[in-house]
Design brief:
Strands 12-11-13-14-10-15-18 form a seven-stranded mixed beta sheet, sandwiched between helices. The chain contains 23 helices and 18 strands. The two termini are 56 Å apart. It is an alpha/beta fold.
């Protein structure tokens, strides 16, 4: 549809549609005098109409489409040159945003398609015929923030530094020639320049705002890749210019008190910043690559709700079994699952629940992710001999009641954990296994005698994190007969992701836990002592009511909390 041409004004159309009276329009026009506000804004401020009323009336009268904030239309893809056709300043000033381009035809979202001056200017600016799509001011403001957000953040931080070609050449030369002498004074000066400081600060703050758990900054031959891990999946963000790579890495190293001159070896560090009145910890890892240093920043947001065992999504019966085990005076409690499955969060929530001035709680971790008040926490440092095993040996001389070991990686650590639980201590630790019963087999494979495990292990929790379907856009569908038979689904309807403004068109927002909890009763202890296999242990546990990870996942699919596709991608189907 071509650009609107009409002699009618917005107020006249609203009167014609019976939405306002002539007197109300006259009052609004009188209020408008001396301001630069549009008549629609005045009518909304006076409480005579809503933005949606105006948009729908215009859409009907002019025969042009109307898009709400939830529409995919207001979420155009970045990286196709649309943001260069209509610069951010123009978009904000004139309330327009590009949606799509086809040859010399440009579709734009706008609030007032009857603003012919803006439409004509836009046509001249883009050299395109303009096809307007109506939306409200609120929806357009949000769409502009989403669409230009990454670029805005970066432009605010780097300003004119994109044009500094000399710096780009110099930094690229440093990246490609590792043996060349570094000008450390210049590198430090660049890292402490205000634009770079703002750039790094805004990248971090934007990540927190978007609920990211990690920030990946990766150098390539002619570009930087900037990605956020949101709900377990990496999402690409508009990156800064390539020539800023070295300064950004140096700035992050300075925050962590790392050596900015060392580019050939991996380094680990941490820093803390305050946002919205709460302290947030960041763990940083740098590794050298052929085009420079890659940086990964883990965001450790100390959200109080994450440390509440009752809010992690356990079923009531399961939660009762966990609480009973963690309040035992001694024994071994194991949390198992792959990296990123939430094991550490579950451990901290358990420790937080039993933390008391009457208990001496000590942890040895790699690294310390959250700082718990009243808990003695040690970070391992293998380079100086402070390993998990060394820390545990020292703990035994510190009169502990409860010990938490970040991960049981070797026989020595496993032996000390078992010995500590046998001598009256409650011990928590993690393993990397696919399910709960496999943890016993893993420890036996390490060299722990089965009879010792039968006497010490109290509880094993295997867990996964599943992305949660967006409540605003998930849609029901009827699964095929083949799907029903394959997965044992009897429900008439399941739900799948669609994508909307609320979830940035991903279809998922947030995550929920699926847990397999194996309580070690008398029958299970006897089976462990006899050296039964993992599959035999699993059969016994299921016979006593243990729900497998797959069963728990299917339950959440049936409840419409997640999709079958997500379940298949995270948890292996029991066969």
């Amino acid at each position: 549809m071509a650009m609107i041409k009409t002699s009618e004004r917005l107020g006249e159309i609203l009167v014609k549609n019976g939405l306002v009276s002539q007197e109300q329009l006259a009052k609004a026009l009188d209020v408008q005098k001396g301001t630069k506000k549009r008549i629609g804004e005045i009518l909304v401020e006076l409480g005579l109409l809503t933005e949606h009323d105006i948009a729908m009336a215009l859409s009907k009268q002019l025969g042009i489409p109307c898009a709400s904030g939830a529409s995919k239309l207001l979420n155009p893809r970045r990286g196709e040159g649309l943001e260069e056709l209509i610069p951010l300043d123009f978009a904000k000033k004139h309330l327009v945003m590009p949606l799509s381009k086809d040859t010399n035809s440009l579709t734009v979202a706008c609030v007032d398609p009857l603003d012919l001056i803006t439409m004509d200017n836009l046509s001249r600016l883009t050299h395109c015929e303009i096809n307007p799509v109506l939306t409200t001011r609120a929806d357009l403001d949000q769409a502009i923030e989403r669409f230009y957000g990454g670029d805005t953040m970066l432009r605010q931080a780097i300003g004119k530094s994109y044009e500094m070609a000399e710096q780009q050449t110099a930094v690229q030369a440093e990246v490609q020639q590792d043996d060349q002498t570094l000008d450390l004074d210049r590198l430090r000066q660049e890292a402490e320049d205000a634009p770079v400081i703002r750039l790094v600060d805004l990248i971090v703050r934007q990540a927190i705002k978007e609920r990211a758990s990690d920030i990946h900054i990766e150098p390539f031959k002619d570009r930087i890749s900037l990605r956020y891990r949101i709900d377990g999946a990496l999402t690409e963000i508009s990156p800064p210019a390539k020539h800023l790579a070295a300064a950004m890495v140096s700035r992050i190293k300075i925050l962590c008190k790392l050596d900015i001159a060392e580019k050939r070896l991996p380094q680990d560090g941490a820093f803390t910043m305050t946002m919205d009145g709460r302290a947030i910890d960041f763990r940083v890892s740098t590794v050298p690559s052929i085009y420079g240093e890659k940086v990964v920043i883990r965001i450790l947001d100390k959200n109080a709700s994450l440390l509440d065992l009752g809010r992690l999504g356990f079923e009531p019966q399961t939660l009762a079994a966990i609480r009973e085990a963690i309040h035992d005076p001694h024994g071994l409690v194991l949390i198992t699952g792959p990296t990123g499955s939430g094991k550490t969060t579950t451990l901290y929530a358990a420790l937080n629940e039993i933390n008391s001035p009457t208990k001496n709680i000590m942890t040895v971790e790699d690294p310390v992710e959250y700082r718990l008040d009243g808990v003695n926490q040690i970070q391992v440092k293998p380079q100086i001999g402070l390993t998990f095993a060394a820390g545990l040996r020292a703990f035994m001389r510190q009169d502990p009641d409860i010990i938490m070991v970040g991960e049981t990686r070797d026989l020595e650590t496993a032996e000390i954990c078992v010995r500590a639980s046998l001598t009256g201590h409650l011990v928590f630790s993690t393993l990397h296994t696919n399910d709960s019963p496999s943890s016993i087999s893993r420890l036996v494979d390490m060299g722990i005698a089965p009879f010792l495990l039968s006497a010490t292990v109290r509880l094993i929790v295997a867990q996964r994190l599943l992305r949660k379907l967006c409540d605003h856009c998930k849609e029901a569908y009827e699964p095929s007969q083949e799907i029903r038979q394959k997965f044992g689904i009897v429900e008439e309807l399941l739900y799948k992701s669609k994508g909307c403004e609320q979830c940035a068109n991903i279809g998922y927002k947030g995550r929920l836990g699926a847990y397999e909890v194996l309580s070690v009763n008398r029958e299970m202890r006897d089976a462990i002592a006899k050296g039964n296999t993992a599959s035999q242990l699993k059969d016994i546990a299921v016979s006593f009511g243990m729900a497998t990870l797959w069963d728990e996942g299917v339950k959440k699919v049936r409840a419409g909390l997640t999709s079958l596709e997500e379940l298949e991608g995270v948890i292996l189907l029991d066969r």
